[in-house]
Specification:
The complex is a heterodimer. Chain A is of the alpha+beta class. Chain A contains four helices and five strands; from the N terminus they run E-H-H-E-E-H-E-E-H. Chain A has a five-stranded antiparallel beta sheet with strand order 1-2-3-5-4. The longest helix of chain A is centred in the middle third of the chain and has 20 residues. Chain A starts with 11 loop residues before the first strand and ends with a helix. Chain B has a five-stranded mixed beta sheet, with helices on both faces. In chain B, helix 1 packs parallel to helix 2. The N and C termini of chain B lie far apart (about 30 Å). Chain B is of the alpha/beta class. In chain B, strand 4, helix 3 and strand 5 form a beta-alpha-beta unit. Chain B has one domain: 2-Layer Sandwich (Transcription Regulator spoIIAA). The chains are: A alpha+beta, B alpha/beta. The interface between A and B is medium-sized, with 32 and 26 residues.
Chain lengths: ~160, ~120
């Protein structure tokens, strides 16, 4: 699987790479590290860092869960690139892949049926929390690339 | 327990106050607490999320599951959720359109008046 570059590598002001065991108790650790790194980017405001935290939590949890029925000792790799007005995060796992285009569709918000769906919210929430998201998945693993913009950049675009 | 919960009576409802992160690790603890409350006959619940630091789809799933659980017993569940960062996650999923997010315990209507 290819390495994914941040949206604009020329503007990268810092990179952090983490490798964690595929265990759920490490999800909060990843959230803390990525959010703390994002706080170093002066234009990333609290609301956008909160969105980043949610998107990263979903992607990291999915990556860990992909290893649930897998005896491999593969680790989850989290690469966080800071740039002016954005943070890009790539989460890579070597677990069982999935088809991101084959996820169950949620009922519309007005429908009472909406409250019957306890699961299946993870990928939609990840996509809605990030400004850019890309999932590349096959039988050898999954790579999720997330980019969250600062509010300043969002206003400009 | 990975989160802290506190259960207290606010007749005619029972309040479950939640403290911590409602994610893949913490959310199952809340599910367990709600299951215990319902098993004990408390089916008119308030989940007070004022002390929740973080929520993702696992937390949302347990909240939705809790609503299903009490409604199966002709009960009701109301949410108190004053923190903007937690409200935002419900809003991103449009769940605030089917699930009123109250700012304070005093804003929660009487179960008889609650929309079902």
């Amino acid at each position: 699987m290819s390495e994914v570059e941040p949206a604009d590598a020329d503007e990268t002001t810092g990179e952090i790479v983490l490798e964690i065991p595929a265990r759920t108790e490490f999800v909060s650790f990843v959230r803390v590290v990525v959010a703390t790194a994002a706080e170093l980017e002066p234009h990333m405001d609290t609301e956008r860092i909160d969105d980043l935290r949610v998107a990263v939590s979903e992607a990291t949890t999915n990556a860990i869960e992909a290893h649930v029925n897998n005896d491999s000792t593969d680790r989850i790799r989290v690469q966080c690139n800071l740039a002016e007005d954005q943070v890009a995060v790539v989460i890579h796992d070597g677990g069982v892949g999935f088809d991101p285009d084959d996820l169950p569709e949620l009922p519309p918000p007005e429908s009472p049926e909406r409250l019957l769906h306890e699961s299946g919210l993870g990928v939609p929430l990840m996509r809605m929390s990030a400004d850019e998201s890309e999932i590349i998945s096959n039988e050898s693993g999954t790579e999720v690339r997330l980019v969250v913009y600062s509010s300043r950049r969002r206003r400009r675009s | 327990m990975h989160i802290a919960t506190r259960r207290h009576e606010r007749p005619p409802r029972t309040v479950i106050s939640v403290y911590g992160d409602l994610d893949v690790v913490g959310a199952p603890d809340l599910r367990q607490e709600v299951v215990a409350a319902v098993a004990g006959g408390d089916v008119c619940l308030i989940l007070d999320l004022s002390g929740v630091e973080f929520i993702d789809s696992f937390g949302l799933g347990v909240v939705i599951g809790s609503i299903k659980r009490v409604r199966q017993r002709d009960g009701d569940l109301a949410l108190v959720c004053p923190e903007p960062r937690i409200r935002r996650v419900f809003e991103l999923c449009d769940l605030d359109r089917v699930l009123p997010l109250h700012l304070a315990l005093t804003d929660v209507p009487d179960p008889a008046a609650a929309p079902r």
